[in-house]
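As noted in the main text, all predictions were made from sequence alone. Below is one such record, for Diguanylate cyclase/phosphodiesterase.
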Amino acid sequence: MSIVNQLMAAVLAVLIGLASGTVYLMSDSSKEMLIHQLESHGQDTATHLGLYLAPYMAAHDTAAIETTVNAIFDSGFYQQIRVVDADNQPLFVKSTDAHISDSVPEWFVHLVEITPPEMTREITNQWQKAGSIFVQSRAGYAYEQLWRGTEQTFIWFVVLSLFSMVFISLLMRYILNPLKGVEEQAQALSQQKYIEQSRIPGTRELKQVVLAMNMMVHRVRTMFDEQAKNIEEIRRTAYQDDLTGLANQRATFTQLNERIDYRRDFGHGHLIHLQLADLQELNNQLGIEKANNFIRACAGQLNELARLTEGPVIGRISISELILLTDMTNQDQLERELNKLADSLKDTYQQLNDNRRGDAPFFIGVAAYSEQGSSKELLVNARQATGKARQDNATIFCSSATNTEQQNSWHQHVSSRIVNGDIFLQAQPVKSISDSPTVIHNEIYARILNQENLPCMAGEFISVVKQLNLLTALDRSVLNAAIDRLEQQPEQALGVNLSNESVRDTTFCDWLISNLSRLPRPEQLCIEINETSVLNNLSRVALFRDQLKQAGVRFGVDNFGINPAGFSYLYTVHPDYIKIDGSLIRELDSSAEDRFFVKSLVTVAHSLDIQAYAEHVERDTQLSALHQLEVDGAQGWIHGKPAEL
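Prediction:
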């Protein structure tokens, strides 16, 4: 019960006690007053009767006495009238039962006892005692008057109490409203959300409570921000190039290997290799500071080109080499963007070189990527393309070549499979890290059959799906299959990874939320979104996450920990779990830097009550290191390759 309701209950109890005491005192006082009225009424009646009946009593004229007494008694205000002579012998007695009106409850009669007094008057006639008259008023009259007064008092009490309760309730809620804010702060703090009250109450005690709560929230937020900054500094030191701000050599090669050799979900694309011709000559011509500015310009232009790709791999792999893995497959678009990049860098070089004549000292080579190649082969091909550009004295050389007819046939095949929902599912388990690991959930992967009716991985057809804008249709098919399976086997937990396009599609999200009602156990479904998609659509993802939470579905962030934007978004989204990107796990058992960084990520996640899982775990030594780092779960080939459901 809230403090306002408790105070209202206390006030109501006091009012009831006060009213009960008031009614009792008023009833007792009214009772005494009514008894006095009955005494006065009886005495007056006895006096008046005595004055009139004195001669008749002296003459013992019972007929006259009876007639007179009956006339008065029939008014209904008397319970008994008794006339006696001088010897106390009855001349006439008139009495009736103590009748009480039906309007007076019986319980009230039993509760309040009223005994009307019998009043007497001695009667004299010609200076001789003629007798006495005894009059007792009717008790029913007193009960009726007392009940009517009590009833009216109670009704007014109820009316005034209700009015007072409403007024007091509004007043208390206004005065204690800051406590509601403190309650919301405490609840938000338990969910690792930080709210500060802007309205400070005037009441001294409440003011101190609100200020203390705001100070605590501010300090906790500051602690988390400092922790996040420290971890971000660790990430920059370990994985970021100081000069360009891009990923350094180690991080770039790890991410390239992760996307192409392990996950194989990038699809078709191109690797762009930008190389400075002679760094020593560049330093001699421009000076070290301007040469560094030119290198930063190269990184900045390449980073702008990377914005056209969702989840690119970009970095500096040597002092004079930058690379970008892009999913851009249209040859004309690629050449157009590269020409814009080259022209911009040439202008920058001329400005830094004080507009002196001379060719910009850089070359760009482009190698096409398909799912069959490896990361090492792709990098070799890109470097060969750059060497060809240097040999031909050309700025750009693209070694990509595609069979248009074969490409169109494959596009048509993929489109037909996806539109018709002709897909099948494979799954890989995420298991807890313990002595007896249990399956947390199974992550689902979509597969189709190629033109030879052989299963092909997502990387072989995902680029075509992107080009044909069928990612949402693919996600819908996968979710339909997952929901159908969970209806039949509600004890099995499944995880589905949504694309950036599906997250942005309001119609798709509404469709998903409406279909979740089919699930007997919605907590067995996990929806995952890539970290890059989360950061690109933060407000939309936060709303979508709230909808999933209300539906009882778990939510996770995939490929966590590699985006340069950091992870402060965890405050806003607050997922149920994160999956640490495999590029941070691959060398975990041999790299102290990776272990320290992963430990920091796990600490942040656990401080927000978020579970932390690791992706692409392949070796027992990795699993042992994850156990020491208190990671909650692991996914990878150590638990088996993806297998058909």
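The two ends are 49 Å apart (CA to CA). Residues 343 and 360 are 10 Å apart (CA to CA). These features were considered when defining construct boundaries for the mutagenesis experiments described in Section 2.9.
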